[in-house]
């Protein structure tokens, strides 16, 4: 019996044909590389590719692309894949014959059940961030940390002091800090006061907003920016506090503002040109 050498594996590119889904969304095009043994049958190749593409062998149709040759459909499962002349750099394109409705959509997460841990369960874990903070006596575990009420009161007092010292008032011009050319965000102050729809931060997060008295409410400054570099139109969380074009509204803490005689953007350039003419 003559010696039969073992066929050399061939490195082949595996792709998955893209097909548009209803609504314009397209299936992702899979791209990988796989070593293929030329003596495998088409059926064996399909079984190997199932783990790569997620397409069952019976639903696969393979299109073989070899450089310098016309593309060929490998429709005979008993035929050897080597008969198609595959070489390094050849491509096998996998087509899924199932209707779109029967294909799993791995990009749609709306139907995926999400796991949510109960707060009381999280509290008992020994390897969580909360446990680390507890061991390091950080945050609410710091014996010297302010209570949520004290923290909120301190913030409200600071907000009022900043508003008074900076002269923050409606209709005044201001810039948002930090601000340096060419990234200067300036505008007109349109609102000063509490914004209940903005979530609390720090220790105050534990408090119910409905239970917070008016004197402890954090203060915000609503500014209408000269350019659409903001995040809203003067409304937050479905509640409106002032009117301005979309993307021209921003709410910032008083400490982040500087009030002054800041002309609207573009006007200062005109003044510079005028001074040059004079």
From TrEMBL:
InterPro entries referenced in this protein's UniProt entry, alphabetically: CAP-Gly_dom_sf, CAP-Gly_domain, Ubiquitin-like_dom, Ubiquitin-like_domsf
Entry keyword set: Chaperone, Cytoplasm
Stored Pfam families: CAP_GLY (PF01302), Ubiquitin_2 (PF14560)
GO molecular function, one term: microtubule plus-end binding
Keyword Cytoplasm attributed: yes
BP-aspect Gene Ontology terms: cytoplasmic microtubule organization
Family matches, as PROSITE patterns: CAP_GLY_2, UBIQUITIN_2
CAP-Gly domain boundaries: 219-253
Gene Ontology, cellular component aspect: cell cortex; microtubule plus-end; nucleus
Ubiquitin-like domain boundaries: 36-94
Subcellular localization, as worded in the UniProt entry: Cytoplasm
Family that this chain belongs to: Belongs to the TBCB family.
Name of this protein: CAP-Gly domain-containing protein
């Amino acid at each position: 019996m003559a010696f039969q050498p073992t066929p050399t594996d061939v490195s082949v590119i595996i792709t998955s044909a893209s097909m548009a889904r209803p609504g314009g969304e397209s299936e992702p095009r899979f791209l990988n590389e796989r070593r293929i043994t030329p003596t495998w049958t088409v059926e064996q190749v399909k079984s190997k590719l199932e783990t790569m593409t997620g397409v069952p062998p019976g639903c696969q149709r393979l299109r073989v692309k070899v450089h310098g040759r016309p593309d060929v459909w490998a429709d005979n499962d008993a035929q050897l894949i080597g008969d198609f002349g595959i070489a390094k750099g050849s491509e096998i394109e996998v087509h899924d014959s199932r209707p779109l409705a029967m294909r799993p959509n791995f990009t749609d997460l709306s139907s995926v059940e999400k796991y949510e841990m109960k707060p009381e369960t999280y509290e008992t874990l020994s390897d969580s961030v909360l446990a680390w903070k507890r061991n390091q006596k950080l945050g609410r575990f710091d014996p010297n940390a302010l209570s949520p009420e004290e923290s909120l009161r301190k913030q409200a007092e600071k907000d009022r002091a900043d508003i008074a010292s900076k002269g923050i008032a409606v209709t005044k011009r201001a810039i948002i800090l930090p601000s340096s050319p060419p990234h200067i965000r300036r505008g007109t102050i349109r609102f000063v006061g509490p914004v209940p729809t903005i979530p609390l931060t720090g220790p105050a997060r534990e408090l119910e907003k409905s239970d917070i008295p008016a004197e402890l409410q954090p203060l915000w400054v609503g500014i209408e920016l000269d350019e659409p570099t903001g995040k809203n139109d003067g409304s937050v969380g479905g509640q409106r506090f002032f009117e301005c074009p979309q993307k021209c509204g921003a709410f910032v803490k008083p400490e982040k503002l500087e009030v002054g005689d800041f002309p609207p953007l573009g006007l200062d350039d005109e003044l510079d040109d005028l001074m040059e003419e004079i």
